[in-house]
Structures are given as structure tokens and as C-alpha cells.
């Protein structure tokens, strides 16, 4: 039962890697990277149950947090083209472009 | 662990290694730098998964937090300073490929006389590990053996590592801080 779930998650991982490699648009890659992170979280949880050690769930939770940080950084990068400093300036730049 | 779950773990290990190889080839092949950054995050998530199946949960923690989390963010920061696509190199990649193949085969040759995974008679399990496992509950009184080894048996080692990381952090903050100050002064002028 858990084996079937693990196999399905591994297939999802492979498909996500293919989408990451092929692209073509940035948003394909963002979605694929996020999907892959989620699949890793699920895989670790399933492996924990498969080996009779459900305490792996805590680790899976931490991975979800790390994945969230990574996705936030990617989205910020794709919106502003940079990370960190001078963000208010670039927001003004974006609004300027719209006008 | 039942026999079935051991078999399942081995199959998952093999598939994860296969995905790791595919990811590595794609990282070398891709010219879109954003794709390379995302794929290197995938690479470290895959290796973290491998560490989890090998029961090295603490290593997997570090790999996921540093490899998939922080270094993806740092690489994106670096990407914002450069172009989106890698230039196609003018020379062929034959020499690097040769070096990689030679190094890889030497490494594989080195694993040939390594004891099998989980072998109880391996040197690492017969030296001081039994003492740690039996003694840590009474001597250190910490429920987790890994914690008692890191924080007590090898306390000075861990202290040294912490000092190194602290020094690196102070150095980075000193460099970044001076850069920020200079920019502010420049804006005022």
C-alpha cells in the first residue's frame, strides 16, 4: 500500500524534473520546483510510515517550511528581478512601467 | 523493520539515485541559469531524501536547510547580478569530461573495500560506538545518542565548529555592513 504511494510520488518527482528541464517559461519552472519540494515532503512522510517510524513526519514538516522559503525567494526574484535591498525602489519602477 | 520494507527502501534508494543522475546531467546540459538554480535545489532535496532513507536524519536536515533553502536564495541573488542564460562555451568539454570520468572511477574503486551498509562488524561499529550507545543514558543522561555524542563526548569539536561558523558570520556581516554604509553616504552626496 505505502509502496504504491511511494511509487506514485517518485513518478511525480520524475515528471517535475522533466518539466524543470524543459521549461520553457519561468512559471513552468517555479511550479515544477514547488511541486518537487511538496513531493519530497510527501515521500519522507510515506517512507516513515513504510518503515514503521511515523516520527519522520516532523522532518517532513521542516522540509515543507524550507520549501516555502525557497518558493517565496523564487517568486520574489521573478517579480522584481532581484532579492533583498532596494525593493521599494523597484516597486516604484514597476508602477512607473505600468503608467 | 520487516523484510518487505527493507526491500521497498532499497528500491526507493535506487530510484532516487537514478533521479539524482538525471538531475545532474540536466544541470550540465541546461543553458537557462534559472533552470540550473531550480535544478540544483532539486538535487539537494533528492540527496536529502537519500540521507533520510539511510537514517542520517540530522545530515538530511542540514542538506535540506542549506542546500535547498539558503543556497537557492543565494544563487537567485547572484542570478539577479548576471544574465539569464549561460553563453555557449567555445571549446569542447572533452577534457573536463575525461577528468570527471577518471575521478569518478577512482572514487568508485575506493568504495570497493568499504564494509557493506549496516554491517555490524564494520570498524565504525566496533570502536567506540558501543560505548557511546550503552553509556550515554547513564553518563550524559540525554535521551538522544546523537545529541550526547555531539554536545558532550565531542563537545570541544562542536565548540570549534561553532567558533568557525561564528567567525565566518562576523566576517560576512562586517563586509556587508561596510558596503551598505558606503552606499548610503553616496546617496546623501
Give a brief description.
The complex is a heterodimer of chains A (99) and B (189). Chain A is an all-alpha fold and 99 residues long.
Q: Can you walk through the features of this model?
A:
The complex is a heterodimer of chains A (99) and B (189). Chain A has 99 residues and is an all-alpha fold. In chain A, 84% of the residues lie in helices and 0% in strands. Chain A has one domain (2-98). Chain A has helices at 2-22, 26-50, 56-80, 87-98. Mean pLDDT of chain A is 78; it is low at 95-99. Chain B is mostly helical. Chain B folds into 3 domains: 1-86, no CATH class; 107-153, no CATH class; 154-189. Chain B is built from 8 helices and no strands. Chain B has helices at residues 3-29, 33-53, 57-79, 94-110, 123-126, 129-139, 145-153, 155-188. Chain B starts with a helix and ends with a helix. The model of chain B has no long low-confidence stretch (mean pLDDT 82). Chain A binds chain B through residues 2-3, 6, 10, 13-14, 16-17, 20-21, 23, 26, 29-30, 32-33, 36-37, 40, 43-44, 47, 50-52, 56, 59, 62-63, 66-67, 69-70, 73-74, 77, 81-85, and chain B through 1-2, 5, 8-9, 12, 15-16, 19, 22-23, 26, 29-30, 32, 34-35, 38-39, 41-42, 45-46, 48-49, 52-53, 57, 60-61, 64-65, 68-69, 72-73, 76-77, 79-80, 180.
Amino acid at each position: 500500500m505505502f509502496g504504491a504511494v511511494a511509487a506514485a510520488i517518485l513518478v511525480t518527482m520524475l515528471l517535475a524534473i522533466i518539466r524543470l528541464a524543459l521549461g520553457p517559461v519561468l512559471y513552468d519552472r517555479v511550479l515544477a520546483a514547488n511541486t518537487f519540494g511538496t513531493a519530497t515532503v510527501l515521500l519522507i512522510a510515506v517512507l516513515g510510515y513504510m518503515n514503521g517510524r511515523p516520527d519522520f513526519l516532523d522532518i517532513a514538516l521542516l522540509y515543507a517550511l524550507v520549501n516555502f522559503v525557497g518558493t517565496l525567494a523564487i517568486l520574489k526574484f521573478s517579480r522584481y528581478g532581484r532579492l533583498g535591498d532596494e525593493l521599494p525602489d523597484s516597486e516604484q519602477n514597476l508602477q512607473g512601467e505600468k503608467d | 523493520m520487516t523484510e518487505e520494507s527493507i526491500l521497498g527502501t532499497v528500491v526507493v534508494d535506487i530510484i532516487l539515485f537514478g533521479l539524482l543522475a538525471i538531475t545532474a546531467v540536466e544541470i550540465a546540459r541546461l543553458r537557462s541559469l534559472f533552470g540550473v538554480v531550480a535544478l540544483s535545489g532539486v538535487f539537494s532535496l533528492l540527496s536529502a531524501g537519500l540521507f533520510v532513507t539511510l537514517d542520517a536524519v540530522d545530515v538530511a536536515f542540514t542538506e535540506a536547510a542549506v542546500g535547498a533553502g539558503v543556497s537557492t536564495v543565494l544563487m537567485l541573488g547572484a542570478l539577479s547580478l548576471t544574465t539569464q542564460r549561460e553563453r555557449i562555451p567555445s571549446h569542447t568539454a572533452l577534457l573536463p569530461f575525461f577528468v570527471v570520468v577518471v575521478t569518478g572511477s577512482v572514487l568508485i574503486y575506493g568504495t570497493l573495500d568499504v564494509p557493506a551498509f549496516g554491517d555490524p562488524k564494520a570498524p565504525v561499529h566496533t570502536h567506540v560506538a558501543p560505548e557511546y550507545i550503552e553509556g550515554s543514558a547513564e553518563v550524559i543522561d540525554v535521551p538522544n545518542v546523537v545529541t550526547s555524542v555531539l554536545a558532550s563526548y565531542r563537545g570541544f569539536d562542536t565548540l570549534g565548529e561553532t567558533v568557525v561558523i561564528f567567525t565566518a558570520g562576523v566576517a560576512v556581516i562586517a563586509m556587508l555592513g561596510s558596503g551598505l554604509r558606503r552606499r548610503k553616504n553616496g546617496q546623501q552626496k
